[in-house]
Amino acid sequence: MKELGKRILTAAIGIPLAIFLFLKGGIFFATGVLIIIAFGLHEFYSMSENKGFHPMKWPSIIISLLFGVLFYLTLTNIVDFKFIYTFLTPTIIGTFLFTYALYKEGISAITDISISIGGIMYIAFPLFCLVAIREFNYISSSEVEWGYFILTLFIAIWLCDSAAYFIGRVIGKHKLFPRHSPKKSWEGAIAGFVFGSAGFVGLTAWLNPSFALSESILLGAVISSFCQIGDLIESHFKRDAAVKDSSNFFPGHGGFLDRFDGIIYISPIVLFILLVLN
Predict the structure, then answer these.
(1) Are 146 and 133 contacting, i.e. CB atoms less than 8 angstroms apart?
(2) Does 157 lie in the same domain as 271?
(3) Are the CB atoms for 22 and 151 separated by under 8 Å?
(4) Spatial CB neighbours of 56, under 8 Å, sequence gap ≥ 6
(5) Residue 37 included in any domain
(6) Residue-level pLDDT, tens digit, the chain, 278 residues
(7) Residue 41: which domain range?
């Protein structure tokens, strides 16, 4: 009961805050995403340290946050240097980390630099895509309310995760990926796909009626499939680092990566589909 109370309290605080950020958008939503990036990277690098590696934790986090600010300013047309941003910034990030490695003692250059850059590619860049989705009106004009779209996206992932967990516990017999996540089953994964897809299509029809049904069905299917892969990837990292949760930041819910693994994985895919459709 004590654990359940923690989960309820965390949800009671977190859900209204999340909805406010989704609907408000702008600098509020972007700041929230940057916070997730900072804590998510810290958790990822801490798991790496459990394995005996020495990633450049704080330089990588600071660089990612600065890059995120640059991304938002460029996306919303506050500044205009898209060419430099697109082609040079990733190279500058790598160059800085390579240089920093020269002065850090006890570092395994190839491994630790790869982990540092890998964390940025795994967590920071995909979440920049989430900001781009929320501010998609700057990319392509449409009648879609992107705050509601983000809300629908998160609810669909929650429905997928919840259905996969509860139905998998009741009728799950065939293991989905026993090597990395032995409790997940094919029955749960299929249930997650059905509930997540249906939830996305239904909520989109209600909150964003201008969204084409065929596109909604496509996105619902993609989201409900790939968010489960994101969960498996994070489970693989945790099993490799011999930890149950990425952290204990959210009482009863684990860490940032535990909460946002699905959205991290699907954001670039969803953004790509939206760009193609528009």
Answers:
(1) yes
(2) yes
(3) yes
(4) 97, 100, 101, 104, 107, 112, 113, 116
(5) yes
(6) 466 666 777 778 889 999 999 999 999 999 999 999 999 999 999 999 999 898 989 989 998 998 899 889 888 887 766 655 555 676 777 777 777 776 666 667 778 888 998 999 999 999 999 999 999 998 877 778 999 999 999 999 999 999 998 898 888 777 877 776 777 888 889 999 999 999 999 999 999 998 999 999 999 999 999 999 999 999 888 888 888 888 888 876 789 999 999 999 999 999 999 999 88
(7) 26-134
Residue ending a domain, among 103, 134, 165, is 134
Could you tell me the pTM of the whole model?
0.91
Distance CA 131, CA 148 (A): 14
Report the amino acid identity of residue 209. P
Domain-located, residue 176: yes
